[in-house]
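**User:** Here is a favour to ask of a fellow structure person. Please take any protein you like and set down a full record of it. No explanation is needed for now; the record alone will do.

**Assistant:**
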Amino acid sequence: MKRYFYFLVSFCFLLLWSSCRKDFNFTPSDGNLRFSKDTVYLDTVFSNIGSSTYTLKVFNTSDENISIPKIKLRNGLNSNYRLNVDGMTGDLQLSGKEFSNVELLAKDSMYIFIETTIDIQSLVTNETQFLYTDAIEFGTMNVQKVELVTLVKDAVFIYPQQITTPDGATVIETLSFDVDGDGTYDETNIQGRFLNDNELTFTNEKPYVIYGYAAVDEGKILAIEAGARVHFHANSGLLVTNNASIHANGDVSLDSELMENEIIFEGDRLESGFAEFPGQWQTIWLFNGSTNNKFNHTTIKNSTVGILVDGNQDDSSKLEITNTQIYNSSNFGVLGRATSISAENLVINKSGQSSFASTFGGNYNVVHSTIANYWTNSFRQFPALLLNNFSVDLDQNFIPNALISANFTNCIIYGNDNPELLLDPIPDAGFDFKFKNCLVYFNDPNNNFSGPYYNFEDLNFYENMLFNTSPEFLDPQQNKLQIPLNSPAASTGTPIGGLNTDITGAPRSSPSDLGAYNATDFEN
């Protein structure tokens, strides 16, 4: 009897619940959908390289559950866009292009995810960029549309070959070159290939997109013309080998925003969200033995290490940097190891470690440069400027090598950490440096840094210095490191250097201003 009672109660409960439940009835959409955007811009993509994923939100503002009879791309199967509607991939034969009877509850919303991969050669000939458009159409009667727009750029693609091994495996081509200077080529695990002779001039006609390392072979010169744009895929870079050179010879740009004559090295993600994102590619590596390397009116941004310079500390032509900007390096802006660097009108900012690191000794001469570090992504271990005279091997043994000279004149060394200068010598090697007419952020109230090298009264090491006085940069977080007319760094320089202009090409005054920029009236 009790069992029968429980059954009766359960049956009555189910009957009551079913009589109160509203069925999910759907009526055809009448064209009253609302969208988060009326046009989706997929930024700029290179030909044959997939875009990021973009989103469109669709709202049902009515009190009725609706069924959208059709969501489709206007160009149908010929469209270069792909859609995913709330996790659905689309009708079987039209996957990513068309969706039937898509249900949307009252006052609810759904996401549409949009991607594209476009071959510019299939769209237009004799053009280096092309505006590709399409639309997402909603419904069959009262059709609503959301436009899709993508700027597609053609490019010169440089990439290593895929090689099939005797056992049938596929591997990526790696570089073989004289690594240790003994005159014989060594196998490496660096994925990449050497540039052909007809690739040794980068022009400004099309962007260059590099996968892996593009290498300059022994005795060759890579010439990069003013206005060229070089883009690197993840884990990619340039490598200059023994007795080879790179000449990146940009020019002054009339438009400081467009930088039309500047040579620019950056990643291959052109979306706005990647514009200032560090660590997108690896480095420009000037290997031991390379020589006569030059960068002028060049911008290097968003790398792991902007320029990595190895060896040849007695070669005064190893690297000459003029009128160059290096930003957003996840590790170092410039990393020198037992090498020789000459720099004038150099600007570095926002580096995950040091902006300029002179390590393992060598020779360095830096004039009228702004070495700043306003890294904000996370904690950083090193200051804007690091000098040392040693390396550390795999067994954690110190290997000494003399810092023969490190001269910094008319420079600004500043940032958002303290101190922004670290002198880190070991006693087994020479350590010779000189700062003259520089503004440096070094505040040490607890005397954590001591010894003769931190005696700022010693004229052998320091002369006409300014400490801990803000240069009053325009906006260092946005890499705007110009100084105002009333900056403490204005009109405090000494005559020096081979250039008579600042980084913008403006004549230097006398006495000159510190750093790479002439002092400016920000209000005009």
User: Anything to note?
Assistant: The chain is about 5% helix and 45% strand. Residues 369 and 515 are 4 Å apart (CA to CA). The mean pLDDT is 92. Residues 2-20 form the longest helix (19 residues).
